[in-house]
Amino acid sequence: MKRLDSAFEKLDSFYQELIDEHLRGEGVDDDDEDILGMQITLELNSDKPTNWDRVKALLMNLFLGGTDSTAASIVWIMTALMKAPHIMKKVQTEIRNVVGNNRKVDEDDLPKLPYLKAVMNETFRFYTPLPMLAPRETTKKFDTDVLPGLIMHKKNPLLLMPKLYRS
């Protein structure tokens, strides 16, 4: 628990530092206010007592909110590569030829790894981490072809996912 508490204290301190910088006007362009500046303005102009924890919660959502879909994407990419060892071997060979064995892949290496990029894009095509369209709802009652016996009623919410065809 000590490590967890320490991590949260560090994050809290970091978020407070960002808030303090905005309040002092450091690194802030008056012509182009960012989301943190807008949230601080809302907090200062609120009828409620100022509570920086609300602003810190927003910052935490912004910084940490995308980690789940990123982690899910990495899991799908690795799963796809494990299911196709010949493709994994090509990716490994490309990485070793560009990066070598003694260092990690750097952002500057990415343009030199077209096969890895193609594998990632293909994986995203087959295993999209997010629904492709905004939520919809049915306009009338109907039977589905996908699940025989399943009846979709009027105004049922739907999340549309791409239909995947494999050749």
From TrEMBL:
InterPro entries according to UniProt: Cyt_P450, Cyt_P450_E_grp-I, Cyt_P450_sf, Cytochrome_P450_71
SUPFAM superfamilies recorded: Cytochrome P450
Keywords tagged on the record: Membrane, Oxidoreductase, Transmembrane, Transmembrane helix
BP GO annotations: terpenoid biosynthetic process
Membrane topology qualifier: Single-pass membrane protein
GO terms of molecular function: heme binding; iron ion binding; oxidoreductase activity, acting on paired donors, with incorporation or reduction of molecular oxygen, reduced flavin or flavoprotein as one donor, and incorporation of one atom of oxygen
A cellular component annotation (GO) from this entry: membrane
Superkingdom: Eukaryota
Membrane-spanning parts: 58-81
Annotated compartments: Membrane
Major subcellular location class: membrane
Family classification: Belongs to the cytochrome P450 family.
Protein name: Cytochrome P450
Organism: Salvia splendens (Scarlet sage)
